[in-house]
Amino acid sequence: MKNSIWNKSYIYSGTGILVLVLGWIIVSTVADNSLIFPTVNQIFEAIVNIFGKTDNLKYILFDILRIVFSILVSFLVSIIVVFIYIRFKNSYHFLKPILVFFKTIPVVAISIFIWLLVGGKSVPIITTVLVTIPVIIQGLIGAINSMDRNLVDELKMVNNNHFVAFFHVYLPYLLPYIFITFFQTFGLGLKVMVTSEYLSQTNNSIGKALYNAQSNIALDVILAWSIIIIVFVGLCEMVMKKISKGLEY
Are residues 215 and 92 in the same domain? Predict the structure, then answer.
């Protein structure tokens, strides 16, 4: 039964991708302007050229390291906040305006402010951390609130050591949610990071590569980088989903 559902999902996903490709072929053919609407062949050649250059592979590696580091920092801060929330429920009312602020403020505004404050190198990491923290905190707090109230009440009666309860009960319970939240924030974090890199023109980054492509009006390269990012995020999400499902059983 599960295999048939998976097969159907793959068929629908493949059909959607095929429609997008056919739609782009039609648009590029009708427009007949390869500068603005590059052909599928041009985009494919641009993808091959990207992977054929050592510098581009270095950009991808550095961005992976940046995004992983940023999300790990975000999770560390979020875990601390969640611990405080478990201890003092009313702390969420204090944090909510701050979380909403960073969740809704435009990435451009944060990036510019941080760039003016600390310079260009740290802008993508700090911006990504600030944007992803609210998403992670709200996801984990939602998981805590969905816990069985009888279990929580019994835990309070049996053990008054909050650190022991957190690490032996709450954290194991949150583990599947942590993985789910991780792949949810990974795609968001990568988009935020690339945008911030583009604005701050961070060296050795995909954002800087996109900036250079935009300066040269190379739409095929811009689309090629976009496809690479989409495929990479999609693969990461598939892996994380399998891991999170394994943890649930």
Answer: yes
Asked if 213 and 205 count as a contact pair (C-beta separation under 8 A), the reply is no
| Angstrom distances, CA of residue 193 to CA of 48, 132, 190 | 24, 11, 5
Picking from 16, 42, 27, the residue whose alpha carbon sits closest to that of residue 223 is 42
> Is residue 6 very low, low, confident or very high in pLDDT (cuts 50, 70, 90)?
low
Domain for residue 139, yes or no? yes
Q: Hey, is 23 helix, strand or coil?
A: helix
Higher pLDDT, 59 or 237: 59
The pair phi, psi for residue 105, each rounded to 5°, is -65, 140
Task: Identify the CA nearest to 128 among candidates 77, 79, 83.
Answer: 77
How many domains does one find in the chain?
A: 2
Query: What is the domain-level CATH number for residue 47?
Result: 1.10.3720.10
User: How far is 133 from 190, CA to CA, in rounded Å?
Assistant: 14
5 and 98 both lie in a single domain: no
CA 105 to the chain's CA centroid: 17
State the residue for tokens 């993808």.
47
Q: How many CB atoms lie under 10 A from the CB of residue 175?
A: 13
Domain that holds residue 113: 42-248
Q: Is the pLDDT of residue 122 over 90?
A: no
pLDDT of residue 156: 60
